């Protein structure tokens, strides 16, 4: 019966590890005590966000196969093997010497779906914060679609490595006083990132903890779209102080905003949502400056934000110079007064909210 239970549990997967719980070493064993099955699970880190879900799935799986038995699942936190212990010790050492120690505020910029301008908002907000006099860094964590290098005009930048006290650190690009690191700086432009989640997580961990950030007031994290394992890994690696959600006004985008907000509000995540930025809010032709055309609908993200008690940080109109600036490597905040005004307002709201929480 024990072997049968083990075989059954090959069908229960850990979403972040992308392995079943037997292969991943989470399943420690099963004991039969009269009419009771006691299953022991051991997770590789404390407060694993998937522990409760996996526990429930194990109970359901065994109960379905053995309906006459009571199923008890015991969750442990610890190390399964010396190999795993050594790996976690190396990660812990990286955390102990992390270059993020002198960053005052870390803000995640997220979106429920792709194509809403999340990376453009991140780049322009970074410039707006720098113009307010703050020391700013940007981590391009959109591992499968990195674009910050292009938006800041440093596509050809090759990071150097320096040694401090026998440890290697990565030198980020610096544009207008903003420090920037991206996985795009370590690959050829046309290469596809055919990485499993664990490989991507490992690369991001190095970028987070080994980049020479120095003393920063703000580090903006440009997250991938959606709500996946990369997000959970970054949340576990960093003391993120708040999150910004980017959306367009159209209903299909707003529906994904709901998932983004709920991810950060999840008790296992518990990161304050600073507010929503409604991007591509309207279009005003240059020759008709008093006209507004709501191409993607009017105020969908704003209405949602109000309904769930989240602030609307700003509405960014469709302006050709924003797109042109992203393509040319010069964020539009630097060149277009109308764009600068919008993002300065967003920046000030972000600053106020972060300072309130300190």
Task: Summarize the structure in short.
The protein is of the alpha/beta class and 358 residues long. The protein has helices spanning 2-8, 51-65, 82-96, 118-131, 148-151, 197-210, 229-237, 251-265, 300-307, 320-328, 337-357, and strands at residues 13-14, 19-20, 27-33, 36-43, 70-77, 103-110, 136-140, 161-164, 167-170, 173-175, 178-182, 216-222, 242-247, 273-283, 312-318.
Outline the fold blueprint.
Elements: H1 2-8, E1 13-14, E2 19-20, E3 27-33, E4 36-43, H2 51-65, E5 70-77, H3 82-96, E6 103-110, H4 118-131, E7 136-140, H5 148-151, E8 161-164, E9 167-170, E10 173-175, E11 178-182, H6 197-210, E12 216-222, H7 229-237, E13 242-247, H8 251-265, E14 273-283, H9 300-307, E15 312-318, H10 320-328, H11 337-357
Parallel strand pairs: 4-5, 6-12, 6-13, 7-11, 7-12, 13-14, 14-15
Antiparallel strand pairs: 1-2, 3-4, 8-9, 10-11
Helix pairs in contact: 4-11, 6-7
Could you give the order of strands across the largest sheet? 10-11-7-12-6-13-14-15
Assess the beta-strand content as a share of residues: 15-25%
Mean pLDDT: 86
Contiguous helical run count:
11
Classify the secondary structure makeup into a structural class: alpha/beta
Biggest β-sheet: count, sense, barrel?
8 strands, mixed
Spans of at least 5 consecutive residues with low confidence: none
The Rg value, from CA coordinates, equals: 23 Å
Amount of helix: 25-40%
End-to-end Cα distance = 54 Å
Q: Sketch the topology as an H/E string, one letter per element.
A: HEEEEHEHEHEHEEEEHEHEHEHEHH
- Give the number of DSSP strands: 15
What overall form do the CA principal axes indicate? globular
């Amino acid at each position: 019966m024990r072997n049968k239970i083990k075989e059954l549990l090959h069908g229960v997967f850990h979403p972040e590890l992308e392995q079943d719980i037997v292969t991943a070493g989470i399943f420690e064993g099963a004991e039969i005590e009269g009419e009771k099955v006691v299953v022991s699970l051991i997770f590789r880190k404390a407060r694993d966000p998937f522990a409760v879900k996996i526990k429930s799935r194990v109970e359901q799986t065994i109960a379905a196969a053995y309906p006459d038995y009571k199923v008890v699942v015991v969750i442990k936190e610890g190390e399964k093997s010396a190999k795993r212990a050594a790996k976690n010790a190396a990660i812990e050492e990286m955390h102990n010497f992390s270059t993020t120690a002198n960053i005052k505020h870390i803000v995640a910029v997220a979106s429920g779906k792709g194509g809403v301008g999340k990376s453009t908002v991140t780049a322009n907000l970074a410039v707006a914060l720098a113009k307010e006099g703050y020391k700013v860094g940007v981590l391009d964590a959109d591992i499968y679609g990195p674009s910050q290098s292009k938006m800041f005009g440093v596509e050809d930048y090759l990071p150097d490595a320096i040694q401090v006290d026998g440890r290697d650190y990565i030198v980020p690009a610096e544009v207008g006083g903003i420090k920037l690191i991206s996985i795009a700086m370590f690959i050829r432009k046309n290469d596809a990132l055919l990485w499993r989640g664990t490989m991507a997580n490992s690369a991001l961990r190095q970028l987070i903890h080994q980049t020479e950030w120095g003393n920063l007031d703000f580090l903006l994290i440009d997250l991938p779209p959606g709500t996946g394992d990369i997000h959970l890994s970054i949340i576990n690696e960093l003391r993120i102080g708040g999150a910004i959600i980017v959306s367009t006004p159209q209903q299909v985008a707003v529906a994904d905003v709901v998932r983004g907000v709920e991810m950060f509000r999840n008790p296992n995540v518990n990161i304050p949502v600073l507010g929503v930025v409604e991007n591509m809010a309207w279009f005003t032709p240059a020759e008709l400056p008093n006209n507004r055309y709501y191409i993607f609908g009017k105020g969908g993200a704003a209405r949602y934000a109000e309904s769930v008690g989240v602030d609307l940080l700003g509405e960014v109109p469709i302006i050709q110079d924003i797109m042109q600036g992203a393509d040319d490597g010069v964020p539009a905040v630097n060149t277009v007064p109308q764009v600068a005004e919008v993002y300065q307002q967003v920046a000030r709201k972000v600053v106020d909210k972060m300072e309130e929480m300190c």
